[in-house]
Design brief:
This protein has about 290 residues and is α/β, with parallel strands linked by helices. About 35% of the residues lie in helices and about 20% in strands. It contains ten helices and twelve strands. The strands form two sheets. Strands 2-1-3-5-6-4 form a six-stranded mixed beta sheet, sandwiched between helices. The protein has a six-stranded parallel beta sheet with strand order 9-8-7-10-11-12, sandwiched between helices. α1 crosses α10 and α5 packs parallel to α6. The chain starts with 8 loop residues before the first strand and ends with a helix.
């Protein structure tokens, strides 16, 4: 059991909401297993308070922080520096303390890639539908472009926002394979093709578990594999609809795992063993009541 004392280092998560997060399980489990004097807690930061939160964390000697929705882009202006990959994606989810402030990183993209690899999901040569155009969607689109997807469609309720995201990812990845669509743009795609779909919005997040960005069953008949970045609930409405249409679907708990592992490594200057990664994942599933 960790004994909190004057040497205890603090890490945390800022976002709105944060009540659903499983991130403390990752970092506190690792710290306890390693015997590291570190604790991780979630901080609910209301709109308009991000700059104050980051400055306050630095003043309080907080070692590092994760950033979740809706602040992954807004937080960039509060930082002392930003990693090249995070800059290209245009979103930050991990803050690492420096002498002058925090440096921003994006471990979402690499975390998603490691999660998809662990489920034997292929990106290279695939045509991919991404739902959403926020920070997580940009990270997913950037990853898919870099890893050789033949085509990436960003579908969003506001097509202009999808267009901005597509142009940004095309420019930064130099791949030119990303195209923007309205949320019903899939209706104009060939009906005989099957796609990998990545659900990158917060729609369907607990407690609104019956919601999905798209409810039309025609969409799901075109999906061979669905990956929802949401991890609570462990079977989202998006996942249910993919499975009902005959496809495979996965939740985002492994993405959360791997992005968290990489953040922990950045904060502490270490490499986490595969044995410890599997141990943490088991604890995460236990915390969520997942028996798969």
């Amino acid at each position: 059991m960790l004994q909190v004392d004057g040497h205890t280092r603090l890490c945390g998560l800022i976002g709105d909401p944060v009540e659903h997060t499983v991130s403390p399980v990752i970092h506190n489990t690792l710290a306890q297993k390693e015997g590291r004097n570190l604790v991780y807690v979630p901080f609910h930061v209301e709109a308009g308070q991000v700059k104050k939160a980051v400055e306050g964390a630095f003043a309080l000697n907080v070692l590092g922080m994760n950033v979740t929705v809706p602040y992954k882009r807004e937080v960039i202006s509060c930082l002392d520096g930003i990693d090249g990959i995070a800059e290209k994606i245009g979103a930050v989810n991990t803050l690492v303390r420096t002498k002058q402030g925090y440096k921003g990183y994006n471990t979402d993209a690499t975390g998603l890639y490691r999660a998809m690899i662990s489920e034997n999901i292929k990106i290279e040569g695939e045509e991919i539908l991404i739902l959403g155009a926020g920070g997580a969607a940009r990270a997913a689109a950037f990853l898919c472009a870099l890893k050789g997807a033949s085509k990436v469609y960003i579908l969003n309720r506001t097509k202009e926002k999808a267009q901005m995201a597509a142009e940004e990812v095309n420019r930064q990845s130099e791949a030119g394979c990303v195209e923007a669509m309205g949320i019903d743009g899939y209706k104009n795609l060939p009906k005989d093709k099957k796609y990998l779909a990545i659900q990158a919005t917060s729609v369907g997040l607990f407690p609104n578990t019956e919601d999905a960005v798209i409810l039309d069953k025609e969409f799901y008949r075109r999906v061979h594999t669905g990956f929802d970045l949401i991890y609570r609930p462990s079977c989202t409405q998006f996942m249910k609809l993919v499975r009902e249409a005959g496809g495979k679907s996965y939740h985002g708990l492994k993405m959360l795992l791997y992005q968290g592992i990489e953040a922990y490594e950045l904060w502490n200057g270490i490499s986490v063993s595969q044995e410890d990664i599997l141990f943490v994942y088991a604890r995460m599933k236990e915390a969520m009541g997942i028996e798969e």
